[in-house]
Structure formats: C-alpha cells, structure tokens
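FAQ: What does a multi-protein file look like?

Like this. Sequence, then tokens, then the next protein.
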Amino acid sequence: MELIPDQKNSKLTAVLMLVVAVLLVYLVGFHWFFKRHIEYAEDLSALKEQLGRFEAVVAQRESLQQQLTAIRESSSDEELFLAQPDFNEAAAEMSERLGQMVTTLAADDCQIVSRQPVRPRVQERFQRVTVNVRMRCHGDDLLQILYRLETEVPMVIVEDLNVIRPRARRRSNNDAAQLQSLDVRFNMSGYLKS
C-alpha cells in the first residue's frame, strides 16, 4: 500500500475540483445575473420595436389632423337638424317629405295609412320630433323609401320598424296566390336645433 497518492491522479483531481468549484461559484453567484440581463435585453428589444411603431403613428399625426379638420369643415352639423322652429311644423314637414317620397319612389299601390306626431316623454339635449307612421307597401318600394329617409339631409332616423306580411289570399279562379302589400309600422325621428 502506498501512503502518497499518485501525482498524475492528484493533478487531474485538483483540476476537476477547480472546475467544479468555479462552476458552483458561477451557478450560485452569477447565473441569475446573466439570465436576468438576457431577459432585460429581450424586453428592451420588444420595447424598441413598440417605440418604432408609436413613432410611425406620431409621424402621421399632422396629416391625419389636417384630414380631420377638412372633414369637420366640409360637413356642417347644422344641416343635420330639422329647419323648422317648433315641434308641430317639423312634424308636418317630416310627414310631407315622407308623402313626397312615397309618391315619387313607390308604385301606386304603396300608401300611407296614418301619420301621427308623438311628443317625447323624456327631455333631451336637442328637442326630438317623432312621427309614428303606418304604411302598406311592397318590399322593394319600402326599402327605397327607408333608404332615402335615412340618407338625405336633414337627418331622419327610422326606429321601431315592424313589418307584417298579410296572409296570402287565393283567387277562386286559378288558386294562384295574390301578391299583397306589407303592413309596415315605424317611427321616424329628427331633431330641432334648439
């Protein structure tokens, strides 16, 4: 038995122990530091990319603001309000406008059954004028009338639209279904300036 170990094995053991010690010192003391810095670098690159997108949007600010100003100047809000000074005149004008549309856009069998002005129950910022309408009309004519009502100036809003299709009646001669008009009920509303 040898009391002194072999020098070749002791050098290798010392080198291995030094490597293990350095690895332990790195893992305990520095690994979290480097890992945290790598995460910070990834976050920083993501923030730089986001900053680039924000700067691109900011660069468009002046042109977008000019477009917004041009749009605001082109459409006058006052044109959207009803021109009449009080509720009754505005309701009469809306009813007359609907009557003219039915006359010009629809066939002869399209007719207005009733028009009744309805005063609002709730006070709003602008006074609302509502006319309750009941009509008998075919679908195509009805679509044209409603489209024109909502797209023309002054602004008229169609609400609470109820369309009822009557039952088909059969002719006694040839049992063919007779095409009938739809029963339509809706409210059309507009606003006064003051």
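And here is the next protein:
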Amino acid sequence: MYSNSSARIDGDVRRSSTGVALATSPPPPAVLWKNTTLDWFRFTLDDDAPPTFRQRILYSDVHWNFGHGPLLVFFGGEGACEDFYANSGALFDMARPLGAKVVFLEHRYYGKSLPFGADSYGNRELRFLTVEQALADMSDVLARRGELFGCVAGGCRAVLFGGSYGGMQAAWHRLKYPHLSRGAIAASAPVDIYPGEGKSEAFWRATIRTYSKFGTPACAAWIENAIARINATTQGSYGLLSSSFKTCAPLATRNDVARLLLYVQGALSTEAMVDYPFASTFVTPMPASPVNVACAAAGAPPPNASDAWLWRSLNTVQNIFLNFTAQLKCHNVSAELLRSGLLSTSDRPPQHHHIRANAPTLGDITRPWNYMACSSLILEPLTSDGDGFFVPREDQIESVERACRKSFGSVTTRPHWMPRAYGNGVQLARSLRNVYFSDGEKDPWRVGGMPNATNELSPDGSVVHRLIAGAAHHQDLRFADPSDSADLIAARAEELAYVTKWLAETYE
C-alpha cells in the first residue's frame, strides 16, 4: 500500500527524491556501565553467583537541557541495545522540542549485559532472567538518575518508552513502580495474550489479513491453501516437503511436519509484523514492503496449483523475511520450541549461545528469549531459525512445557503467572495511569494488545489505545519516513502531546 521508492539512504540522512532531508539517524551514543544487583529479591548472597553484574546504558545529550530537562527512557527488549537505539528515531525527534536526554537500558542477558559473561546461557545461570528482575533493573536506573546522569533537584522527570516486549515492560513498570516515572508510551505491546484466551487463531487470521490487504487477496488465498495442504500431507509427500522448503534434514515423521508448519507460520507472521514501507535490518535484513515483495516474487498461482507449486512458492514468501541476503543455506526446523507429539530422542537442547554468520544486529536471541517463554511468557516463543514469533494453540501448551524441560532442565513453566501478576487488558486499563498504547494495523500482535474500549475503561481517561492505520510493529517509534501513513503521522503528534502533558503535571 505504501512504498519508499521516493526515498534513499544517503550517509546519515534519509532524503526524498528531491534531495530534501527528512530525518537523520540518531547521534552516536555515549555509553555508561552501571553495577546492577543480580538478584533484587534475595537479601543473602548466593555462593555460585556474583552479587552484581555490569549493565550497559546508551544515551544521548544532544538535545538535553543539562541537569533540568526530562529523560526519555527506553526499555531495551530481547536483543542488543544498539539495535533499539538505531531503530527508535521517534525518541530523538521528540527530545528536540522537550530538551530531553534519551536513555536506552540494555536488558539483562542480552547484548553485552551478560551476568555470567560467556557462560550466561547455562540452565542454572539463566535463573536470574525474569521480567521482575528486568523491571527492578529499570527502577534502579530511575532511582539513581541524579547520580547516573547529573540531574539537578527537580530535574529529569522521566517518561518510559518501549516497543513490543519493551512496551510490555514500560506498561508493567507503570503498574508496579508508578512513582518513578510520569508516563509511558507502550508501542505494539501484547500485554493481553495469555493461555486460555484462545487468540492463536485470531493471530493467524490477522496475519492473513495483512497478506490480503498489503499483498493481494489472491496471495493470501493461496497461502492459506498451501498451509492446509501441509496439514493434510501424508508420508508419501514428506520428500517433496523437504525439498520444497530446503530443510536442513529430511522430514521423516508427522512431528517433523508439525515443526515445519510452526516454522513457516512463524516466519509469515513476523514478516507481516515488520512490513515496514522502507528497507530494514531490524530483526533481519529485509526490503521495503516485504509482504508485497513476497507476494510478487511468488507470482500468481496456476489453475489447480499443485502441492509442488504451493510449497515452493510458500518457501519463496518466507525467504523474503528469513533469507533475503541468502545467509541461510537451509531451514533448520528441528530447533523449534513448539512441537506436537513426543519429542524425538535425537533432539538435543543447545548448550551454548552463539551468533551465526550474517545474523541481524539483535543477535541470535533464541536461547535467552525461549527461556523467558518457558518460564512466564509462554505464548511468545521464538521460531523460524530464531527470527520469527508465533502464538501456539491451547492444545500445544503441554508440548511447549515438555520441550522446555528438555531444553532448560528444571525450569518451571507458569502459564498463568503473568495475568495474575499484571492483569489482562481490561484490568490494566482500569489500574494504570498515564500510558499510551499503540498498535499497527499490519501487526498480528495487535490481537494481544489492549482492548478497543481502553479509553472508556480508564477511570481518569489517562490510559489510551490507538490502532494506527497502515503501520507495522511499533513503527511509531521509528524515524519519520516519506511513506508514513497519515494516521501514523497523527499518532506521533498525539504521543508528543501526551508526553508534554505528563511532564507538565504537578503532584502533591
């Protein structure tokens, strides 16, 4: 629907076809390391764990009214902090009129903030990787803002930001630690997608809708047919499936086919999620408007399309997301966390974290993120060679738990912990104050976002939800682009207005 054919990247400036500068990339960040308590919820030392670890903060003072201006503080999510810094240009645009410092906190166990160094991803070492510990890490930053950033008395009022999981953290921090910030922008934050809500099918329907509206209706139709044919396949077609999708190992069992299906649906859903109208390396290298590109690359199906055509074409569609730069020689479906039936005895859990060649700047986040999915974020595991996400069905939860025990030893899956600890969408709307939630129309994760009636549910009207037409996953947090929809431009203006209002509020 939108194209960035009129824009190019020229050095650090995005320019229109007429040469007019539209937005700059963020200024080079300053780096701050702070000592962070490893376990905020114990008051005795653990003999086999260090009491603290070094946690990284990236920040920029370019627009800051030194000592007095506010802080725009970003929750780094599941990846290296510099990638969030480079892909969250809206904060820098907002910092200019506000005279604000921009601060990005790297999430523990991601990027360079590794509590146990190269050994951080062992089963026992991962026990300090929880949502609660991450929220407490941010509380430490905000409580120590004067010491860390040189704030004067009354200065550095903080507003929180985050996209996707980072947006979830921003909202949950407002719930648990409201005294430490003035408000939060929670973009594409699926804070209401839990077991028992039956949202897996809605998630897939939202994915197909994106291929229909931003690709073509015919493309969406044959994709659904191809998925149905995988579901209906018999052993005699396993060889054709293997060759069509170029799997690293031949598919030999029904369980292997189930893994392939999850792999493909994870890739397609995430391709829809990040259907930005400009070329991007966020998550993985992709062209502009990848959904439209993928549908065009596959072409129109012939009459009575064969399984061979459907599956080869579906592989073409997923490869626009997974393999646009040909970094993968084959597709490794055996590493899927979501599995149907019993696990193969040949499966071995990964023992060490590593980054593959040509990995996206987020890095290979499969093991730490899946540990989080195995403990509390069970409806958000990684799939598709560590790049894609997909929501499992209710009848797959037991299989996920079984795979988690195999991969992480004694980890305990608590599928109902998060809604009990933080509430569902309706409860959040009624309990929070000063939070702006946004979702993109293209993004399947919007089905796990806040309810449409959020604005009416909020007692004082300070909790807002906006569905942004023509937008992808937290696109409102990115730099402005000539292909931005009118609704996206309006949403960014509205967010600035809310942040300005929150910062101006006085409290008894």
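Q: Is there any per-entry metadata?
A: Some entries carry free-text notes. For the entry above: The first strand starts at residue 7 and ends at 10.
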